[in-house]
Here is the input.
Amino acid sequence: MHAWPASEVPALPGKGRDLQIHDTATQGTITLAPGPVARIYVCGITPYDATHIGHAATYNAFDLVQRVWLDTKRQVHYVQNVTDVDDPLLERALRDNQDWTELAERETALFREDMTALRMLPPQHYIGAVEAIPGIVPLVERLRDAGAAYELDGDTYFSVEADPHFGGVSNLDAEAMRLLSAERGGDPDRPGKKNPLDPMLWMAARPGEPSWDGGSLGRGRPGWHIECVAIALDHLGMGFDIQGGGSDLAFPHHEMGASHAQALTGEFPMAKAYVHAGMVALHGEKMSKSKGNLVFVSALRRSGVDPAAIRLALLSHHYRADWEWTDEVLAEAVARLERWRAAVSRPDGIPADALVEEVREALANDLDAPAALAAVDRWVERQIATDGDDESAPGLVSRTVDALLGVAL
Here is the structure.
């Protein structure tokens, strides 16, 4: 599966700072100082509706991570998946009388268009769950043969007790895990499971549903968590720098994935930091496909909204915060974009070297994008109010906003 084209990232004078970021597992801020190549895995979409503002906010957060690392003169090895076979996708295809593969391909293509328009840097490896199945089957067999998995009526389940570190990503108690498991694709009440929290690794073929050769597992399809584990281990290995996604993935997805990987390899941890973006609401409720309260990036673009304004709207909220999308949020972003473009369109300007460092400092501090925007706002206000004589300043501001915030002025 191919990703989307990369926009050029301008080079800035000097060098950026190492990233300090909030880690869900330790519930504190840690400093990440990767080697020459920083490694990040971000969980991708299930392509039956793409791309709403909640998605965009999540991918914007991890785009900022890439930009901070690139500014430190590191390379970034970024991997993202597409869950292109899953119950919600199959259910939507059945509801709309569509072929599930055509639905997945269409919505993935639209996602690529949205990411390109928003100037999100693409992953080096963009992998669909279906294409990963040949690598998933051996992992499930290894877990089973090691006693970390078991069969139940033809399905194969992972035993959470096989990982002594289980629970260390989300830091939730058993009852909270059980409730979230039921809400987020698990089956804690299925009779015969060793532990209600045990997640499915391989689902035996069901009538009318797609299935693949699972070797000794029989025909079927993979569970949700093992898909990401297989892709991450194949392309990044253990101990990569960031496992990222929305806050609703901390449990069960990232918790289970970490346990799968740790049981497979005997190594800990799967990722150095588990980083989660907040949820975006609309009319007082979390934006979600199940509720249908969605604002789509593609619809905003079709209505004539500049993608740079959409991006500024996302950047105006801290990535870990839960917030609400409103017409006012977008209007403020549109106005900010107009002010910034007017300021950098002047032939001369006030010096901007300090601004570069302010933006760098803000983003290195747990991706504090609102603080970075405020720094640019201050420069813009002075630029409009003062006659500067630095011919290089407007260009430097434009390059800084592009390189570090992904906004083209």
User: Anything to note?
Assistant: The two ends are 31 Å apart (CA to CA). Residues 136 and 230 are 6 Å apart (CA to CA). The chain is about 45% helix and 15% strand.
